[in-house]
Please model this.
Amino acid sequence: MNSKIKEKIKQVLRWLLLGGALFFLANALKNNWQEIAAIRIDGVGWSILAIATGITLLAHAWAGWVWTWILQELHQSISSIQLIQVYLKTNIAKYLPGNVGHYIGRIMAAKNLRVSTSAATISVLLEPLLMLAAALILVILCSKFTLASGSIILLIGQIFGLVVVLSILHPLFLNPLIRFAHHRKNKSSSDNLNGVSLSLNRYPLLPLLGELGFLLLRSAGFIFTLYAIAPINLSQIPLIIGAFSFAWLLGLVVPGAPGGLGVFETTAIALLQHFFPTALIIAASGLYRLISILAETIAASFAWLDERLI
Model:
């Protein structure tokens, strides 16, 4: 009975968080709809949006490649091309209710490629942790551009969170968790392929740097989207990267928001509305959401076609 009550409370909290984010967006849209309607995109702007779409597509392909690095750290030797195809095909499932469909799809598909279930499961748990650490690094590096005076407490909180995440990723802490998960899954004979030992021999620095590259590519896609509808100074780029990374981070960790839908847009507007007209940020956030979905759909289609042609 207690577990059922806890699950109900979690569901209510998820809906409250998502509802609050959507209410904020609806209110911002209502207050700025005239300015948003006045925004026009010319031919050059559409070309820039096409570039933003290409960069975002590249970011997802890059993330798929980084996922193969994580599996290699777990001693799994599988074709990188096949794993990237799996990553891209399952990525769009993150917009399904529950926000875990893409992870489940990757575990099942990786298992079909003879990746051990434990390694596949651990890899999809490690990936968001590495992304979280990468986002926190960018937020802290850009904090002097994004934090107002008197927000030193927030900066300290971010640094503390980064230290915790980076510590969890250390083999000293991570390997016992990996062994525990492996023993839980080891009841299945198919999960004991070749007697592979699941442990990290070193700190996952290369995958962490890879996730930093992913966040920078995603930030570049957002910057180009904003640039398509408004001029941007070079001095504002660190500000945008920091705000984007923090908004993306919250979209990743806040439960109940499939693909960060609503949470990312709300946070981006809240952080950037003091530096750009609110209508521009609303328009850029909405456009970038469409660009992200389009890029993910194109990437999944290309992966599906490539799989059929090879």
Summary: The chain has twelve helices and no strands. The first helix runs from residue 2 to 37. The chain has one domain: 52-309.
